[in-house]
Design brief:
single chain; 255 residues; alpha+beta; 15% helix; 35% strand; globular
Length: 255
């Protein structure tokens, strides 16, 4: 099989890692979509759209995200809300941390005792919303499951691999004072789950007791362990290989 050509997404918070990694002339590459059939960012193979090559669309998407600055504080709807509001599937995702600098971390959920009303008021007054959220320092090998409805943000200084449902729906709640990007506060608050449902696993490269990481109705992923026909993503080179076996030494298996 020919090599997949990733789709590059330009972002205001991007570092220069992906530009250098892919020797690209593009600047501010925040995301490299390694495995995607979403129309707004589809991979190609031999110049042909991946969905046409496969004859179908994938229910999941795999990308590498490089954040020099924090992403917006945001939330994704679950399947029920996504169907009602956007006629789409929802967006549950998970992150495998690849690298961090400058005490990089992620924001997940609200601090204990913070109410929905307090959170919304802080957004409306453009206060420092991140102070209301739980901040977790992360390191290479940490794995985090982020169910739809979780208020979250990837912090600055973090590079990670993300596996998610094939959905582009993001409701931005607060964007660190950036201008020119739309916020979606009403929809975002409506679809948010203010209970902590995320799951954090530390350093799975050495502490993983079994290969399986996450089982969702639209995707399953595991580390260095395959289960049937799927896609192998090399953790070091980001090469993608389909099938039932691979020569990659360290890989994320998704199906």
């Amino acid at each position: 099989m020919q090599k997949l050509e990733p789709y590059f997404s330009i972002k205001p918070w991007a570092g220069d890692y992906l530009q250098k990694f892919y020797h690209s002339d593009l600047k501010n590459i925040g995301e490299a979509w390694l495995l995607s059939t979403l129309p707004e960012g589809e991979c190609k193979i031999g110049g042909i759209l991946l969905s046409k090559h496969l004859g179908t669309q994938l229910p999941f998407l795999v990308k590498v995200i490089d954040a020099k600055e924090p992403l917006s504080i945001q939330v994704h709807p679950n399947d029920e809300w996504a169907a009602k509001l956007e006629n789409s599937r929802g967006k549950t995702e998970c992150w495998l941390i690849l690298n961090t600098v400058n005490n990089g971390g992620v924001y997940l959920g609200l601090n204990d005792g913070v109410t929905e009303a307090q959170f919304k008021q802080a957004i409306e007054k453009n206060q420092d919303v991140e102070k209301l959220m739980k901040f977790w320092k992360v390191q290479r090998g940490d794995f985090i499951s982020v169910p739809a409805g979780t208020i979250h943000a990837i912090g600055g200084g973090v590079t990670l691999m993300e596996v998610q449902q094939a959905s582009g729906i993001t409701y931005r709640l607060w964007d660190w004072g950036r201008t020119g990007r739309e916020l979606h506060v009403d929809k975002g608050i409506k679809v948010s789950n203010f209970q902590s449902g995320y799951k954090f696993q530390k350093n799975i490269f050495t502490n993983l007791k079994q290969g399986s990481l996450l089982i969702h109705k639209d995707f399953q992923c595991s580390l260095n362990e395959s289960d049937g026909i799927g896609w192998f993503i090399d953790i070091e080179t980001y090469a993608v290989h389909p099938g039932s076996e691979t020569e990659f030494k360290n890989y994320l298996f998704v199906r």
